[in-house]
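FAQ

Q: What does a record look like?
A: Structure on top, sequence underneath. For example:
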């Protein structure tokens, strides 16, 4: 091992500590652990793979590498789908009064 983590991050299949959904704890490119939904999703943008040591890694598909490589599988990140997400400071909602869909300017383009 090149270096040792003081606190080994959780890695591999597990459950979300907040909502109990099945997730995979994956190491991302930034060296952080990220929860990925265990169920595969065609519309996911997270490529999950296992290295030879059995550790899970995830990388976000980019324009440069937009397709799966090797044993990667497409998954969806858990955070946006978590049913019991961590509380956020007063999430700002778009006030319906301020959102004006379908309102056209008085002038018209020909
Ligand atoms: Zn969750």
């Amino acid at each position: 091992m090149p270096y040792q983590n003081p606190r080994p991050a959780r890695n591999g299949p597990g459950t979300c500590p907040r909502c109990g959904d099945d997730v995979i704890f994956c190491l991302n490119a930034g060296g952080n652990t990220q929860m990925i939904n265990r169920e595969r999703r065609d519309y996911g943008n997270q490529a999950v793979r296992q290295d030879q040591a059995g550790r899970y890694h995830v990388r976000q598909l980019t324009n440069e590498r937009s397709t799966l490589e090797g044993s990667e599988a497409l998954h969806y990140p858990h955070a946006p789908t978590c049913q019991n997400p961590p509380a956020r400071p007063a999430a700002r909602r778009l006030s319906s009064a301020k959102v004006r869909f379908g309102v056209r300017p008085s002038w018209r383009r020909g």
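Q: Is there anything notable about this one?
A: The chain is about 0% helix and 30% strand.
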